[in-house]
């Protein structure tokens, strides 16, 4: 699925010193990148590479994937909600209603049979 391009004005970048392997380079240079999408508040932090520019590229890719996944989830939820509303509005057919009433009568008879037993009953 193609990812939609991110608008630069919607992004906020911050840099920090990375941890892990990389020796003196990661201790001296801020290579970890945190990228935040301001309209949604979605954020990713990347410190995979020793290179800040590579981490920036990876962060943009991951943020685009995260936003696409979020859009897909929201779309699926909206479809499910509309399908549920459609099912709730649908009226039952005559035979369905009759079957439902018969089941209720049957259940009622079962429950009536559960009454307390008195000395006369035994």
Summed up:
The protein has 122 residues and is α+β, with helices and mostly antiparallel strands.
Rg (CA only): 31 Å
Mean pLDDT value: 86
CATH class: Alpha Beta
End-to-end Cα distance, whole Å, is 73 Å
Q: Strands of the largest sheet, in order across it?
A: 1-2-3
Most strands sheet: 3 strands, antiparallel
**Residue fraction in strands:** 5-15%
Number of extended strands:
3
Fraction of helical residues: 40-55%
Sum up the structure in keywords.
3-stranded antiparallel sheet, 14% strand, single chain, 3 helices, 51% helix, 122 residues, Double Stranded RNA Binding Domain, alpha+beta
Structure, explained:
The structure is a single chain. By secondary structure, the protein is of the alpha+beta class. The chain has one domain: 2-Layer Sandwich (Double Stranded RNA Binding Domain). It has helices at 24-28, 52-89, 94-112; strands spanning 11-16, 32-37, 42-46. It has a three-stranded antiparallel β-sheet, covered by helices on one side. A hairpin with a 4-residue loop joins strand 2 (32-37) and strand 3 (42-46). The longest helix is centred in the middle third of the chain and has 38 residues, at 52-89. The termini are far apart. The mean pLDDT is 86.
């Amino acid at each position: 699925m193609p990812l939609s391009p991110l608008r630069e004005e919607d992004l906020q970048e911050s840099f920090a010193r990375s941890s892990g392997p990389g020796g003196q380079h990661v201790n001296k240079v801020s290579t970890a990148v945190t990228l935040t999408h301001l309209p949604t508040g979605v954020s990713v932090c990347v410190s995979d590479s020793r290179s800040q520019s590579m981490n920036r590229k990876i962060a943009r890719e991951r943020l685009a994937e995260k936003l696409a996944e979020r859009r897909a989830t929201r779309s699926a939820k909206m479809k499910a909600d509309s399908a549920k509303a459609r099912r709730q509005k649908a009226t039952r057919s005559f035979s369905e209603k009759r079957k439902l009433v018969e089941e209720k009568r049957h259940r009622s008879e079962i429950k009536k049979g559960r009454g307390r037993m008195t000395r006369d009953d035994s």
